[in-house]
Design brief:
Two copies of one chain form a homodimer. By secondary structure, chain A is of the alpha/beta class. The first copy, chain A, folds into two domains: about 170 residues, Rossmann fold; about 90 residues, 6-phosphogluconate dehydrogenase C-terminal like domain (6-phosphogluconate dehydrogenase C-terminal fold), CATH 1.10.3660.10. In chain A, about 50% of the residues lie in helices and about 15% in strands. Chain A is built from twelve helices and nine strands. In chain A, the strands form two sheets. Chain A has a six-stranded parallel β-sheet with strand order 3-2-1-4-5-6. A three-stranded mixed β-sheet of chain A has the order 7-8-9, with helices on one face. In chain A, strand 8, helix 6 and strand 9 form a beta-alpha-beta unit. In chain A, helix 7 crosses helix 11. The longest helix of chain A is centred in the middle third of the chain and has 32 residues. The relative contact order of chain A is 0.11. Chains A and B meet through helix 1, helix 7, helix 8, helix 9 and helix 10 of A and helix 1, helix 7, helix 8, helix 9 and helix 10 of B.
């Protein structure tokens, strides 16, 4: 494909930024990519593994020529970065981000947006439990969604270019209202993450009592929870603090429903449990049909075709 | 290896039984394996895919010559099966099971155990979200734990043979007290499953409102939950009803801790969240070091080595 941007700046060099770099190089989506990270250690690692065409020690130098600037820092760090880069953005440049929350990022970026700079908020729905510059890989966004949000500063051309960029990285792109995005993500991602963190915390408390048996015998359910609960702590702290209302609303519904199922267990109401579990199984089917996961047992681990 | 048993009977032909069959054939762990399922459709499927050396329509015929009888039915169905097979068990035969709860299975089996028949309760910690005779595969138990429980009817020889059998299938074997097993599993498996079922149910309620967006945009956290919540409904109903006390105890601790984290979100206590999430991340590390999961991002899906 033809390159969408000549010069791209990546601010922050973690899992998402490094995957953007490798995916962009794989598909030739953009020209020169310059990266910046606050931590010297991260910059050194990035240079060592040849992450970015150039790694800069200066925010000013990183953004000054860029056509597209991608904010790849935790949501809580977005405003400070914007304050620092605003004076050096060239007119006609486009700012985008990869934050898991959209309203809070808009509120953080908007006040500092220079005239002539477009802002296209974005959120790629992709990730792993790993973080840092070494954790990225080129196929992270393949067939995943990237949700874009309208912003008054952006015209159609700026939006179309960001859309082309993400499609070039392998993603499917759709537009969504910022507040609606935050509610949908509270359900599909934010509340599940807090729940997984909590369950792992509880298990660990008990695990100390039972002498590491909890870890030793961690079966499928808990093992998947620990994977979710191993996600980047700073990123998730910021997500919860910046999507507070929607997350608390969903958690309220969750505990209400959990208490109802607990009561079914306590009173021995097997029919209620069976109906509930049969229904959730059909939700899973919907997700597989929507192409958002594979049907392979156990995510394709340890599989032999004998039993099929 | 030399065969541990000449004749094995599999009662119930779902994921675990079919995986036992394929693993046993792969490693030549036993001689003739006869299978029985209550459902004619399951028996026909089993015959079609050559699951078992022989599929029988009769429980009596299935167990009458067997040296090892493996109860692979949901925990709630164990007692009825024992009542029906007890008159036909040969003296010196060994009964074992694969139930996720051990105290309830012992209580179900014990009263019907004929003199001269040994009982070695067992629980292989392995599975996928799929069920039925087609879902099994030979490597399901490789490097997974199988926990055995002492029972007064069993001598050392009977226990050693069941242990050799499971090691032959690829599993690591340890003994554990039945009540302790039920507590550890409530933490690592039963409570996480109920939580996943609940979260998927909540999301689906809201999903109807938001026109399937919840499924369409299901991100990593929720996607993993749906996989757990797609597990066999009957099996899990029986698990919760038969491990009621331990499950409710763990769920009580869980909601207590969840409320504490919700309060941290509501009051903006970022330090508390960051510390909590950093700690759970280290628990994950423990699990990887214990060899119970792979470090590969996203369970090895969509991986390219570029970023490493």
């Amino acid at each position: 494909m033809s390159q969408v941007y000549d010069r791209v700046a990546l601010i922050g060099l973690g899992l998402i930024a490094s995957s953007i770099f490798w995916a962009s190089k794989r598909n030739n989506v953009s020209g020169h990519i310059k990266g910046f990270a606050r931590s010297e250690q991260t910059r050194n690692t990035a240079r060592k593994i040849k992450l970015c065409d150039e790694v800069s020690d200066s925010l000013e130098n990183t953004v000054t020529d860029a056509d597209l600037i991608i904010l790849c820092v935790p949501v809580g760090a977005m405003e400070q970065v914007m304050v620092e880069i605003a004076p050096y953005l060239k007119s006609g440049a486009t700012i985008t981000d990869v934050g898991s929350v959209k309203r809070a990022v808009i509120d953080a970026v908007e006040p500092h947006l220079p005239t002539g700079v477009k802002f296209v908020p974005a959120h790629p729905l992709a990730g792993t439990e790993h973080s840092g510059p070494k954790s990225g890989f080129a196929s992270l966004f393949d067939n995943r969604w990237c949700l874009l949000t309208d912003h008054k500063s952006a015209d159609e051309k700026a939006q179309n270019n960001v859309m082309s960029f993400w499609k070039g990285l392998g993603a499917n792109v759709e537009f969504m209202d910022a507040d609606h995005h935050d509610l949908v993500l509270a359900v599909t991602s934010h509340a599940p993450h807090l729940i997984a963190y909590t369950m792992v915390g509880v298990a660990d408390d008990i695990g100390k009592v039972t002498d590491s048996e909890v870890i030793k015998y961690s079966a499928a359910g808990f093992r998947d929870f620990t994977r979710i609960a191993a996600s980047d702590p700073t990123m998730w702290r910021d997500v919860f603090l910046s999507n507070k209302e929607a997350t608390l609303e969903i958690l309220g519904r969750f505990t209400e429903e959990l208490f109802d199922l607990q009561r079914a267990i306590r009173t021995g109401n097997g029919d209620k449990l069976l109906n509930y579990f049969s229904h959730t199984r059909s939700v899973r089917r919907g997700i597989i049909e929507a192409g958002q996961d594979t049907e392979a047992p156990n995510f394709g681990r340890n599989i032999e075709p004998d039993g099929d």
